[in-house]
């Protein structure tokens, strides 16, 4: 793997580029596909193993299922790997007191959102629990690109929250285009 230095805007503040030997048991690992068109995610299970949501012949196909694979097969032809830095992930999704208390008073909707998010976002499963959670979904065939994709799966394994920044970013882009 070549050494890559990526601009913060390119990779995002919650992703950290790593070499194969830097990945740790229970990490949420991602690869960039099709020259950055999308990222693919899975859970590293140690000893060169991964669990991810994809067709066994590649990311897409008619048999998308949560299954085991090797790190090499997971990487395919991707130039580099990255892991999610969950300290930054939690900070990115937090809502500050300035968002809640406005000149008009307390924004109740944002307060409730912050309470719900903080009760969930601050729980990170241990590497062992993360891998057990991934294993608990082996064989699942409920893939949905918008609500249950590989990123939803991997983030859920680590945090208990099923979400996808790729879907969120796409929806935000559509919203901005409509405005």
Characterization of this structure:
It contains 8 helices and 8 strands, in the order αβββββαβααββαααα. It is α+β, with helices and mostly antiparallel strands. The chain has a single domain (8-92, 126-178), classed as endopeptidase fold (from Nostoc punctiforme). Strands 1-6-2-3-4-5 form a 6-stranded antiparallel sheet. The chain is globular, with a radius of gyration of 17 Å. It starts with 7 loop residues before the first helix and ends with a helix. Residues 1-13 and 118-122 have low confidence and may be disordered.
Tags for this model:
6-stranded antiparallel β-sheet; two-stranded antiparallel sheet; alpha+beta; endopeptidase fold (from Nostoc punctiforme); 39% helix; single chain
Summarize the structure.
With 179 residues, the protein is an alpha+beta fold. Helix content is 39%, strand content 22%. It has one domain: Alpha-Beta Complex (endopeptidase fold (from Nostoc punctiforme)).
Strand fraction = 15-25%
**CATH topology call:** endopeptidase fold (from Nostoc punctiforme)
Q: Mean pLDDT, as a whole number?
A: 78
Q: What pattern of helices and strands is seen along the backbone?
A: HEEEEEHEHHEEHHHH
CATH architecture: Alpha-Beta Complex
**Which residue ranges are poorly predicted, with pLDDT under 50 across at least 5 consecutive positions?**
1-13, 118-122
What is the CA-CA span between the terminal residues? 42 Å
* Share of helix, binned: 25-40%
Please give the CATH class: Alpha Beta
Rg is: 17 Å
Total number of strands: 8
Largest sheet: 6 strands, antiparallel
Oligomer category? single chain
CATH homologous superfamily annotation: endopeptidase domain like (from Nostoc punctiforme)
Q: What general outline do the C-alpha atoms trace? A: globular
Q: What is the helix tally? A: 8
Number of domains: 1
Which structural class best describes the helix and strand composition?
alpha+beta
Strand order of the largest sheet: 1-6-2-3-4-5
